[in-house]
Amino acid sequence: MQTPVILDGKTLAKSIEQELHERVRRIKDITGSVPVLATIIVGNDPASVTYVRMKGNACNRVGIRPHKIEMPEESTTDDVIRQIQTLNEDPNVHGILLQHPVPRHIDEMACFNSIDITKDVDGVNTHTFGRMTMQVDAYKSATPLGIITLLKHYKIPIEGREAVVIGRSPILGKPVAMMLLNENATVTICHSRTKNLPEVVRRADIVVAAVGKPEFVQADWVKEGCVLVDAGYNPGNIGDIDLKNATSKCSAYTPVPGGVGPMTISSLIRQTVESAEKRFGLATAEK
């Protein structure tokens, strides 16, 4: 069997950032303004703080202005929604991101659903999800969009292929399944109550693992020649697939780190630029 293709999200994200930098410069040349991405972080969870910093750095690299709003741990659902509504009404803000997870006492979905869908560049509002599913113009969940972008860039066939998605979270498993379906794959969504999971996975031409459990997907679960998309990230730079043993069987795979992760941030930034282009009435570059 040939050496598997490494689906290098880190390199692709850098290439996309170069294109976005040019688009942001065009926006500034024409309007005198730059896109603004507002990020709300509630509390000081270390992982969330790191992710927000990484997103801010990505904004700076392409010329977007990051606007970070830090809210105390004891903030209520109403407090967060009021902050989101303020950003919804601000014409200078083009994208709104609520860093998740939020503290347990906050109704995260209510907060997500308060984000104006024209600024929902992370694709978390249920109305955004519905529009995406029905193939109506909408922003997409950032990680699933990154996965589809990566597969298309490396010319991985999707149409007619059998895809198995392991995990059904509202921001990853469910939307990536719908996006694969919209690309004409035959999709099975697996979860904690799926029976005979290894046998289901063995049918797959494309496996998307998004369960949050280190090396959960075993090498003997995957068939020869499949494509492995590891959307997990666990302590120790370990994904949700046993890549050490599974890569010898696959035709292509996403490394951990450097695969899906960089594409998530790239998708968020890309959709913020698109939002600004729409706000200023500029023709959006071909996607």
What does the secondary structure layout of this molecule look like, with pairings?
Layout: E1 5-6, H1 9-31, E2 36-42, H2 46-62, E3 65-71, H3 77-88, E4 95-98, H4 108-113, H5 126-133, H6 142-153, E5 162-166, H7 173-182, E6 186-190, H8 197-201, E7 206-209, E8 227-230, H9 243-246, E9 252-253, H10 260-279
Parallel strand pairs: 1-9, 2-3, 2-4, 5-6, 5-7, 7-8, 8-9
Helix pairs in contact: 1-10, 2-10, 6-7, 6-10
Structure description:
The chain is an alpha/beta fold and 287 residues long. The protein has 2 domains: 30-116, Rossmann fold (3-Layer(aba) Sandwich), CATH 3.40.50; 142-260, Rossmann fold. Helix content is 41%, strand content 14%. It has 10 helices and 9 strands. The chain has helices at residues 9-31, 46-62, 77-88, 108-113, 126-133, 142-153, 173-182, 197-201, 243-246, 260-279, and strands at 5-6, 36-42, 65-71, 95-98, 162-166, 186-190, 206-209, 227-230, 252-253. The strands form 2 sheets. It has a 6-stranded parallel β-sheet. Strands 3-2-4 form a 3-stranded parallel β-sheet, with helices on both faces. Strand 8 (227-230), helix 9 and strand 9 (252-253) form a beta-alpha-beta unit. It starts with a strand and ends in an 8-residue tail after the last helix.
Beta-strand content bin: 5-15%
Please tally the helical runs, counting DSSP H or I stretches of 4 or more residues.
Answer: 10
The largest sheet, given as strand count, sense and whether it forms a barrel, is: 6 strands, parallel
CATH architectural label of the largest domain? 3-Layer(aba) Sandwich
Class per helix and strand makeup: alpha/beta
The helix/strand order is EHEHEHEHHHEHEHEEHEH
Distance between the termini: 34 Å
CATH domain class name of the largest domain:
Alpha Beta
Overall number of strands:
9
